[in-house]
Amino acid sequence: MNNDNSRYYVFFQKTFKLLGILALIASFIAAFWLYKKGLLSDTNALKHFILRYHFWGPFIFIVVQIFQIIFPVIPGGLTTVAGFVIFGPVEGFIYNYVGIIVGSIILFELVRVYGVKFILLFVDQKTFQKYEQRLDTKGYERFFIFCMASPVSPADLMVMLTGLTRMSFKRFLIIILLSKPISIISYSYLLILGGDLLKWLHH
Fold first, then answer.
1. What is the DSSP string of 6-45?
2. Cα(67)–Cα(11) distance, rounded to whole angstroms?
């Protein structure tokens, strides 16, 4: 990598880190705005507010889910939970599933094309090396399946790392198609349990 390309690369690394910080700030601002509007305290009001846009509401949500997978600067758990709150358990699951699967496929293919350089735009060297060590282990595929099914694993990072392996696209696709519903549904249960806990603490 020549000096000019190296400078551009470092610039993009810093830019994506900054975007991550800005995305967190924007999430808090959006949550505060929704709270002031009374939309967080009344899920039906929030749902009606979003669904006023009919087709565009679900479409925009799916695009956001795809974007947060490809460029992991938005907390994925936040958008997944938002899907259940806004659209309900059935439609929320469908929109989450479509967005996450499409985003994961694109992310996997981007790493196949651009390799480690792409991963290091979003992940620091130390974190990358920590997980990279598992690539050469016999149990990596089982570990990958577990991460795809778990609601608390670094799923996007694992998709990127798997793009560096010899796993075929077909096998990758089968794994995420079968395992992702588990993690998505787990988020809905965590949401329900969290809501019940807040109600209990409130009383």
1. HHHHHHHHHHHHHHHHHHHHHHHHHHHHHHHTTTTT-HHH
2. 20
Q: Position of tokens 């060590």?
A: 133
**What is the pTM for the complete model shown?**
0.74
CA 186, CA 191: separation in Å to the nearest integer? 9
Q: What would you measure as the largest C-alpha separation in the chain, in angstroms?
A: 63
Neighbour-count burial of 123, counting CB atoms closer than 10 A to its CB (0-12 exposed, 13-18 middle, 19+ buried) = buried
- Model confidence at 197, in pLDDT bands (50, 70, 90)? very low
Q: How many CB atoms lie within 10 A of CB 166?
A: 7
Nearest to 156 by CA among 85, 91, 77, 59: 77
pLDDT tens digits along 102-129: 999 999 999 998 888 888 888 888 888 8
* Angle between helix 140-149 and 169-202 (nearest 10): 40
For residue range 43-70, list pLDDT tens digits in order.
565 566 666 666 677 888 898 888 888 8
Quickly tell me which residue has 């993690």 as its tokens. Answer: 183
